[in-house]
Here is the input.
Amino acid sequence: MDSTTDIVRIHYRRLPDREDVYVQRVVARTDAGIVTFADRTRLSDPVVIGGVPTLEPGAPAIWFTFPGAWHDIGLFHLRDGTFTGTYANAITPVRFVDERTWETTDLFLDAWLDPDGHITLLDEDELERALASGAIDAERAGRARAEMEAVTAAARRGAWPPRLVRDWPLERVRALTG
Here is the structure.
């Protein structure tokens, strides 16, 4: 099977009761992780971080899934392909239902690494509200915090994102996907 033509459906649960399904093309399956591509993100509004648009509706995004990991990573762009930064979601480890169907649950916390190398922890308020409402339990909230603390500490040392992410810029992905 040619991994560049595989399509995967990622069932992304958002607590307490929402699920989005993202359809992406598998670009590469490696020992380090899986690279997927959304040529045109289906967003209703841009993702804005610190007052700056970081992912626009219809813009490309490259995603990196690491089996067993408690976060995934996205490379964000504007519609014109301008790279805006690296995004990490705290999630439950992806469950591979089958080769083309994956499931995971968002754990609220995120991290943002801008092109200048500044790392920011995002959505702590969302995690606190989810914890207070019972949408997430203390154990999973603690796991999300520990994961994002590890990501931000590694980024501050210059050890994050991992090599797989650095090896797959938009130009390389587009060359393989046409």
Observations:
- The chain has four helices and eleven strands.
